[in-house]
Amino acid sequence: MKYLCSLLLLFVSACDMIVPPWQLYALYRTARRPVVCAAGEDCKDKWARATEWVKTNAKYPIVMYTDRLIKTADSVSASPDAAFTISLVPAEGNIYTVHFDADCSDIFGCSPPLLKLKADFIHYVLDIQPRQ
To answer: The domain containing residue 78 runs over which residues?
Structure first.
């Protein structure tokens, strides 16, 4: 009985790492959206939103912060919590791209899933309002 309870607990905790099939397409579409900004106020606003998102969602402390890089501490051994690296990269002319990178060290995946984290980050930084 003890093993059955342990197995059930493992299964229930793993459910948080799985994206339901009916959400996959919407999350995938959002996660593929580029986050671009024009130099100046547009980038300043988006970078501030990216910083706020990381501060709110990261389980690990920010270890490096500049006007072009936000990096949290690395994911600890076998943890499903994601570590983040967000960078502001020059594209063409006065255009920049905000890159999102996340990873965890759990072999079963991250909680919440990386696809969900990236879609949430993009929604937040681009200030996309949910559909009514």
So the answer is: 2-125
